[in-house]
Amino acid sequence: MPIQNPHQLNLPPSLRGDGLVLPYETHTPTIGEEVYLAANSVVIGRIQLGDHASVWFGAVLRGDIAPIEVGEGSNIQDNAVLHVGDDDPCIVGRNVVVGHLAMLHGCKIEDDCTIGMSAVILNKALIGKGSLVGAGALVTQGTIVPPYSLVLGSPAKVVRELTEQERKGAAVFAPKYVGVARNYREQSIE
């Protein structure tokens, strides 16, 4: 099957960029309103991207053997990888920041979380609402993180609950990326 790009799939004009949007078997990605796919991002198969989500340069979302969902306003930053296990979808909630080079594999990230750069989160792990997983953390298979936790280390451990100030500080990044993605779309930066 030849490689297809968004222009060949007749995606809405609000979607700009040259990100590859590829079907897998009978599944084609579902893309919400005002989504930004950067030039060399790749979105394959059973993918659902919520409104105002963004997938940045070099990121790969491969929904081949199970689905991937990315919630409204969430961003998957440069060179991040989202993949799945046989019975383990990858679910990213609303307003989630997935940092550069992060790897999410068959896990669930609840709303309003921040996943630090180069963090790895493995199958069946659950990151509770509003949590912050630090850069370089390794969240092992099946780990359950309570809401509003600070998670650090390799293997990762819950260090403490986030303070109110830390929660407010982290809450600015997802909306900021919605604005940056809007600028890229408007300027047709591909």
Q: What key phrases describe this protein's structure?
A:
twelve-stranded parallel beta sheet, mainly beta, globular
Describe the protein's architecture and organization:
It is built from two helices and 20 strands. With 190 residues, it is mostly beta strands. The longest helix is centred in the last third of the chain and has 15 residues, at 173-187.
Gist of the model:
12% of the residues lie in helices and 35% in strands.
Name of the top-level CATH class: Mainly Beta
Describe the global form.
globular
Count the domains: 1
Radius of gyration using CA atoms only: 16 Å
Largest sheet: 12 strands, parallel
Helix fraction, binned, reads 10-25%
Look at the structure and name the CATH superfamily.
Answer: Hexapeptide repeat proteins
Alpha-beta content class:
mainly beta
What's the architecture, going by CATH?
3 Solenoid
Low-confidence stretches: none
Distance between the termini: 24 Å
